[in-house]
């Protein structure tokens, strides 16, 4: 005889599954800008800032976000060292994910002290790998929370063979100082963090 499964048992299993999913979804991640400062080592620090997407048509004029398709993009970062004229990326690499429908994406990351670089940007684009090389350098100071700036990610359009605007084929980056806003958000999301807050803006280098 096949075993009988009671409705109550099924309901209990479903509730347990939902509880597990809810617990997983509440785990902080860098994109949410929440960091664990209790486990901070002597050589660890925190960096925080924002990503702000901007759009330009093929003539170089600004375009509103609602006038272009939503674009998911990622910025990859890692440790870096110079080898001749090239940059070599060693150790771990991670990424910050964002969507152009968000006016800005706040991030905060706990990292070992040292020199880092945002070394490539990914965005889906027809006919390409989607990756754009970048070199945006920042410094992690030990036992400090460092504001590294607001990175303006400019999606610049080109004109296709049929005259269509191809938004996002070209990417440009620049850093601006919006410390007051970012620091307020950092404190709101990390109210128990007792680290000194300093500013040391990212630097965009040409490849």
Structural write-up:
With 207 residues, this protein is mainly beta. The protein has one domain. The chain is built from two helices and eleven strands, in the order H-E-E-E-E-E-E-E-E-E-H-E-E. The chain has helices at 7-25, 179-189; strands at residues 44-56, 62-63, 72-83, 86-99, 105-112, 114-122, 131-140, 144-159, 165-176, 196-199, 203-204. The strands form two sheets. Strands 1, 2, 5, 8, 9 and 10 form a six-stranded mixed beta sheet that branches. The chain has a five-stranded antiparallel beta sheet with strand order 4-3-6-7-11, with no helix packed on it.
Total individual domains: 1
How much helical structure, as a percent, in the residues?
10-25%
- Average per-residue pLDDT, rounded, comes to 80
Question: Termini distance?
Answer: 71 Å
Strand fraction equals over 45%
Q: What structural class results from the helix and strand content?
A: mainly beta
Topology as H/E string?
HEEEEEEEEEHEE
């Amino acid at each position: 005889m096949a075993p009988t499964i009671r409705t109550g048992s099924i309901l209990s299993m479903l509730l347990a599954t939902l509880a597990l999913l809810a617990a997983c979804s509440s785990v902080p991640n860098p994109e949410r800008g929440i960091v664990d400062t209790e486990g901070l080592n002597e050589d660890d620090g925190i960096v925080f800032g924002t990503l702000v997407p901007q759009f330009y048509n093929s003539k170089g004029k600004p375009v509103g976000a609602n006038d272009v398709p939503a674009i998911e993009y990622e910025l990859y970062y890692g440790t870096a060292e110079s080898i001749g004229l090239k940059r070599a990326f060693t150790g771990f690499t991670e990424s910050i994910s964002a969507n152009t429908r968000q006016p800005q994406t706040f991030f905060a990351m706990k990292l070992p002290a040292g020199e880092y670089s945002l070394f490539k940007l990914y965005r889906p684009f027809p006919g390409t790998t989607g990756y754009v090389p970048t070199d945006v350098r920042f410094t992690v100071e030990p036992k400090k929370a460092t504001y590294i700036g607001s990175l303006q990610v400019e999606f610049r359009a080109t004109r296709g063979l049929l005259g269509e605007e191809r938004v996002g084929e070209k990417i440009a980056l620049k850093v601006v100082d919006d410390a007051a806003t970012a620091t307020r958000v950092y404190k709101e999301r990390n109210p128990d963090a007792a680290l000194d807050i300093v500013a040391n803006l990212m630097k965009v280098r040409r490849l």
